[in-house]
Amino acid sequence: MSMIEIGEGKRGRRGYSFDEVAIAPSRRTRDPRDVSVAWQIDAYPFEHPIVAAPMDSVVSPRSAKQFAAAGGLAVLNLEGLWTRYADPTDIYEEIATLDVGEANARLQEIYSVAIDPELVRQRVQEMREAGATVAGALSPQNTQELHEVVVGAGVDIFVIRGTTVSAEHVSAQGEPLNLKEFILELDVPVIVGGCATYRAALHLMRAGAAGVLVGFGGGAAHTTHDVLGIRVPMASAVADVASARRDYLDESGGRYVHVIADGAMGSSGAIVKAIACGADAVMVGSPLARADDAPGRGRHWGMEAAHPELPRGEVVELGSVGSLEEVLMGPSRMSDGTMNLVGGLRRAMAISGYSDLKEFQRVEVVLDA
Predict the structure, then answer these.
(1) What distance in Å separates the CA atoms of residue 342 and residue 225, rounded to the nearest whole number?
(2) How many domains does the chain have?
(3) Considering the domain boundaries, does residue 358 fall inside one?
(4) Beta-carbon neighbour count of residue 45 at 10 Å?
(5) DSSP string covering 254-319
(6) pLDDT of 226-282, one tens digit each?
(7) Is 5 part of any domain?
(8) Does residue 270 lie in a domain region?
(9) Considering only CA atoms, which of 316, 113, 320, 358 is closest in space to residue 218?
(10) Which domain holds residue 171?
């Protein structure tokens, strides 16, 4: 990709967001009922490629069961309210009444309560007893300490999710997490992210990741760009990481690593574009937080908002639009792509003439800027 001169002594690549690209149908159309949106990672099949983000406003043990019944994968935040409080009901009620402009200080207090390893075991067990594929997420900072508890409790898919996760973390403060050694020791598939470049993704793939999260998560509730100046336009990021997946497939002799877009997934149109740019699945937060039965009750936030030293997120008032089933499967009463997410993806694939997700990754994309 060509470089653009920003000024004397500094050049940069031009990146594109989902808002700047569009799908260009150019072949036969299909009946939407003949389109498959099924996705499978490792031994775990799902009816659609939408993954519920590990955010307390989106996933609880109860909502994970509901999401599994709707054919998807929900990831529980194992550093969140459900592993710090035996019953976080009152905490959710309080967050629902906080002044959103002044919420960070209170969130820092709420999340300062220590994670209880016994509650980690209990929540994983609750999800397992509900019959769901059990997926739990930890940050890189807590993975070393808590991974044995998580895997021992019976998690099916282990997620390591942070603002930026690298295969090689350098630190003078204790023993750093060696992802390659760590992943090799586990008996479960590991999804790791975020990352946003070809080289970073290739390193994570070589470390043994079953899936790579593209982006920095958080989406509507994220302020990382304002605080740290870090942001990579998602269309370019997904395409770069998909390129790394292709090259690693050749390098490894056929090992396929799933690319999961994580961030800027606010509508069905964004989900469509993520798959078109090369993603196998998407991790979704804000649309699911709008469900009537979402744990956050129409409010949305991530762990970044509660960081004890440098918050990089906020509580966002989203409101509610309908049930989780309606948000995922419709029918929709909205024209902005925030309901019937699976239906939007299915219809876009049908209009473009593709029958499954892998085929749809080959659809023509045009610049719309």
Answers:
(1) 29
(2) 1
(3) no
(4) 11
(5) S---EEEEES---SHHHHHHHHHTT-SEEEE-HHHHTBTT-TTTTEE--GGGG-SS---B--EE--
(6) 777 777 899 999 999 999 999 999 999 999 999 999 988 999 999 999 999 999 999
(7) no
(8) yes
(9) 316
(10) 44-336
